[in-house]
Amino acid sequence: MNQDPNYEEAKAGNLPLPPLLERPQGGLVTTATEWNNIRRREIRSYFVRLMYGELPPRPETIRFELRRERSGALDGAALRREVRIHLGNRGREHFIDALWYLPTRNAGKVPAIVGLNFKGNHACSHEPDLLLPDPAHARGPVAARGEQEHRWCFKSLVENGFSVITAAREDLFPDRADGRAESVWRLFHHEAELTPANRDLTAISAWSYGITLLVDLLLSDPAIDGTNIWVHGHSRLGKTALWAAANDLRLAGAISNDSGCCGAAPSRRNFGETLETITRVFPWWFTERLDAYAGREAELPFDQHHLLALVTPRPVLVASATEDLWADPRGEFLSARAAGEVYRLFGSNGIGDAEFPPPDQPVFGDAVGYYRRTGKHDVTPADWEFVMRFIRRNSMWK
Ligand code: GTR
Predict the structure, then answer these.
(1) I need a labelling partner for 128 at 20 to 30 A (CA). Which of 52, 92, 311, 384 fits?
(2) In whole angstroms, what is the distance from residue 241 CA to residue 317 CA?
(3) pLDDT-based confidence at 14, cuts 50/70/90?
(4) Across 382-392, average pLDDT
(5) What is the pLDDT of residue 248?
């Protein structure tokens, strides 16, 4: 194996996506209740076993420490909080630092967007007074302030009435093969169990757990509309956003941006990144059992449209970028369309039988959306415009 990636549609393979509603031992799921009670659990357990593992359990204690609060942040648009989430379990401790903005002007409860970031909270905004990462968590070079500000657009989001909250992936699981030893998993396991070989304790589940902790924090403030908390994630954190939404039913919906292989893109298509590459390069993201399916994708009892379907009946938006062929934009679209079969059990039409759309022309269907932004693998202000439009269309909040 270890071949060059394929970028030719004609060679992507025409494997059918496996059925969503047909049970392995036979029998079709035909109602939303059967989906929720039977098939949803079955599919979630496949993903646990073969791809992401379980999320860590609840710790014995969770405490929120407000380290700093500033009104008038972002040129007066936001109330900004920097909160440390302290977790305790069996005498062990771990913390996660959250950066949280609330709109200054709001009437009533506000919707919220929750998502992890790649390079630290201080890298998501140029504000000079943001706390820098704690040295205990900052391993390797610390990113420059505001280095990834364009990926967040905090000001535009709060001006549009959203609260936004983020934390760094590294606080949950340092993103490397030996990151497990310093990850949130150490609250629940002895050092000897936190080796690179113990792949049931995955980074993607640790990151998803971070999302659930940020939801806990959001819900501690009555200004947040608890029925309107949306998870967003880019790339590996887009895979994370989908897995978080599959597990945390408090999330109102999910937005996966360029999530690609093991995110929204079907494993069965040979286009861009494959299971062979991803399991070889990023083994700590997944359970070891996934490795065996490299080159044998058709034997997986699910594909990634099953992951999107785990978000039902809540809305899901799948976003690609025209130059991000590694993430297989057309495959991401096909998953989004296929997931519609389950949304229809809930009375939503998904994106119906829409065709792969031209760049920058979203298909915002009924509870499922897809678009392909012009440009590279990234999150841009144009992405956030699409995201806000999708959320407005698909929530009670306008
Ligand atoms: C790539 C990886 C992708 C995606 C990306 C990212 O190297 O192959 O699956 O996760 O990283 O997170 O930016």
Answers:
(1) 384
(2) 11
(3) confident
(4) 97
(5) 98
φ/ψ bin of 131: left (φ > 0), alpha (ψ from -120 to 50), beta (otherwise): beta
Q: Is residue 206 part of a domain?
A: yes
398 in a structural domain? no
Q: Whole-prediction pTM value?
A: 0.97
Q: 52 in a domain, yes or no?
A: yes
Structural domain harbouring 37: 9-393
**Residues that are catalytic:** 235, 377
Residue 229 CA to ligand 1 center (angstroms) comes to 25
Closest ligand 1 atom, CA of 262? 9
What atom of ligand 1 comes closest to residue 239's alpha carbon? 10
Dist CA 189 CA 196 (whole Å): 13
- H/E stretch holding 306 reads helix 304-309
CA dihedral 145, 147, 151, 154 (to 10 degrees): 20
Decide if pLDDT at 139 tops 80.
no
| Pocket residue to mutate for ligand 1, from 169, 232, 256, 282, most atoms within 8 A of Cβ | 282
Q: Enumerate residues lining ligand 1, CB below 6 A.
A: 235-236, 260-261, 273, 278
The tokens of 249 are what? 């039913």
Place of tokens 């609250």: 187
pLDDT tier at 25, thresholds 50, 70, 90: confident
pLDDT at 256 over 80: yes
Task: Give residue-wise pLDDT tens across range 268-309.
Answer: 999 999 999 999 999 999 999 999 999 999 999 999 999 999
CATH code, domain carrying 375: 3.40.50.1820
Residue 2 lies in a domain: no
CA of 207 to the centre of ligand 1 (A): 15
For ligand 1, mutation pick of 148, 326, 376, 377 (most atoms within 8 Å of CB)? 326
Determine which residue's CA is closest to atom 10 belonging to ligand 1. Answer: 236
